[in-house]
């Protein structure tokens, strides 16, 4: 393992990263919803697109890891 991955991070850093990822995730969802509204897609299609979005899946996985780390620190 590299030195970077072995360094410990503080609870505050984890919390800040979680907040940033949640904001980014929300921005993606809002952007998709706005685009869908402009082209008059159904809510069902929009929801399916959001659920299958690879960027959101990556964010959700990262958030899950961070929340696990955060819980382990408490």
- The beta-strand count equals 0
Helical fraction equals over 70%
The tally of domains stands at: 1
Mean pLDDT: 88
Structural class by secondary-structure content: mainly alpha
Overall spatial form: elongated
Number of helices: 4
Distance between the termini: 25 Å
Largest sheet: none
Residue windows where pLDDT falls under 50 for at least 5 positions? 1-6
β-sheet strand percentage? under 5%
Rg calc? 16 Å
Based on the structure, what is the oligomeric state of the protein chains? Answer: single chain
Order of helices and strands: HHHH
Quick summary:
The chain is mainly alpha-helical and 74 residues long.
Question: Which properties best describe this structure?
Answer:
disordered N terminus, mainly alpha, 74 residues, 4 helices, 0% strand, single chain
How are the elements arranged and paired?
Layout: H1 3-6, H2 11-38, H3 43-52, H4 54-73
Describe this structure in words.
By secondary structure, this protein is mainly alpha-helical. The chain has one domain (about 10-74). Helix content is about 85%, strand content about 0%. It has helices spanning about 5, 10-40, 45-50, 55-74. The radius of gyration is 16 Å and the shape is elongated.
């Amino acid at each position: 393992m590299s030195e970077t991955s072995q360094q410990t991070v503080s609870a505050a850093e984890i919390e800040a990263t979680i907040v940033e990822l949640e904001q980014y995730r929300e921005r993606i969802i809002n952007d998709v919803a706005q685009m869908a509204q402009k082209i008059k897609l159904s809510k069902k299609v929009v929801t399916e697109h959001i659920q299958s979005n690879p960027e959101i899946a990556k964010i959700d996985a990262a958030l899950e890891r961070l929340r696990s780390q955060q819980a382990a620190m408490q």
